[in-house]
Amino acid sequence: MRRTIAVPLASAGAVVASLAVAVPVQAHGYISGPPSRQALCAQGRVPDCGQIKYEPQSVEGPKGLRSCNAGISHFAVLNDDARGWPATSVGSSVTFTWTNTARHATSNWEYFIGGTRVATVDGGGSQPGATVSHTVNLGSWSGRQKLLAIWNIADTANAFYSCVDLQIGGGGGNPTPTPTPSPTRPPTPAPTTPAPSGTWTAGQAYRVGDQVTYGGATYRCVQPHTALPGWEPPNVPALWARI
Description:
It is a single chain. The chain is mainly beta. It has two helices and 15 strands. The protein has helices at 9-22, 37-42; strands spanning 29-33, 60-62, 88-90, 93-100, 106-113, 116-122, 131-137, 143-153, 158-168, 176-177, 205-206, 211-214, 217-221, 225-226, 240-242. The strands form four sheets. Strands 2, 3, 5, 6, 8, 9 and 10 form a seven-stranded mixed sheet that branches. The longest helix has 14 residues, at 9-22. The two termini are 37 Å apart.
């Protein structure tokens, strides 16, 4: 027998508002390497990004857009070209890696510089892996460029968007992330010591093979990352496997 629970309107509004901020979005995907603008925000390399810091995988909008924020107003920072986004120095051939925290059936991936589509990769309507990499030839381009990558979903009208700032012509085929201006040496990687007591902790850097407990269950890290709120192990199977 169902029970009806009455909630005062003011309280209900507060609950809905809090849920809109605090409940993790069903994870989707974004370019993690070379780091996209949302990845840089999630890593804390660009400050004051707002909500996108906590959900870099959620830049989802209708297919056919050409904006970094997918038309989402609270992700508008991603469109700000004057923000001082670090650019990654790359050669003429660049491998882009998507981190897919939900594996949607895929129509294709598209890559644009300006209004020019520089590459398309067919998804065949199938589900991709937890990570997907595409090597794109950017030999016709040089200097600092903003690349827009689009993941078109096969069974919905939506797509996911990521903008990546590149310094093309830096030599070599594998991208090496370097802030702008280029530093004299690579940045020191974040410490990767497992969290104290083996419990999952937001802000902690994890390595492949690290084990944590969360909600009474044990999980093993399957992809190196720095934990963010909303990336609790049960929510991100691309990062954690239950054991």
